[in-house]
Amino acid sequence: NAGVTQTPKFQVLKTGQSMTLQCAQDMNHEYMSWYRQDPGMGLRLIHYSVGAGITDQGEVPNGYNVSRSTTEDFPLRLLSAAPSQTSVYFCASSPRFDSFHQPQHFGDGTRLSIL
Amino acid sequence: EDKVVQSPLSLVVHEGDTVTLNCSYEVTNFRSLLWYKQEKKAPTFLFMLTSSGIEKKSGRLSSILDKKELFSILNITATQTGDSAVYLCAVEVEYSGGGADGLTFGKGTHLIIQP
Prior knowledge:
The complex is a heterodimer of chains A (115) and B (115).
Chain A: E1 4-7, E2 10-13, E3 19-25, E4 31-37, E5 43-51, E6 54-57, E7 64-66, E8 76-78, E9 87-94, E10 105-106, E11 110-114
Parallel strand pairs in A: 2-11
Antiparallel strand pairs in A: 1-3, 3-8, 4-5, 4-9, 5-6, 7-8, 9-10, 9-11
Chain B: E1 3-7, E2 10-14, E3 19-26, E4 30-38, E5 44-49, E6 56-58, E7 61-66, E8 71-76, E9 85-94, E10 100-105, E11 109-114
Parallel strand pairs in B: 2-11
Antiparallel strand pairs in B: 1-3, 3-8, 4-5, 4-9, 6-7, 7-8, 9-10, 9-11
């Protein structure tokens, strides 16, 4: 049981390049989300999904796209990278309807630098 | 706009001291309040609180929620150097369709325990 797996762990991009950050979970969780963490800040919600085929915007969605074609995977796409997107990105998942009300579990993060 | 405020933002104490970390919040559709510990990588879950006045305890750590005054505290007794970390408070809100929604995080308290 791997939990939440993020790839890659590190990435350096040039301004204007595009890339996809991968997130996969093997716990059959309906809810998945992406956060970014900048120095001195807590985590800020980018996008989230409450199930396959359903996505919604969080607090800071501009410059990012997501899709949820399967329960397991929730990729985050940067369409045209900008230096302001330099950050550490975390993916998280949890059951959506759960009588035990489990907390969100986080992946180990992707450290992204945009030059 | 949902808001979570943690205080202090940083704290330096000596090993063996007791510390109290604060978290206040203003959110709509409150579902739960969570505490996470973050060292070098992903936030790791500590407590989830949903009911007012009920203390959650795990070893030297404890937490309590006051839903009337909209705050929570995290206590750490007999601190050790291994407690050095950023402690994050997050509030989970109810999704419009029911069930879990995104987390709104505070900026975190950076706790340093000196030997």
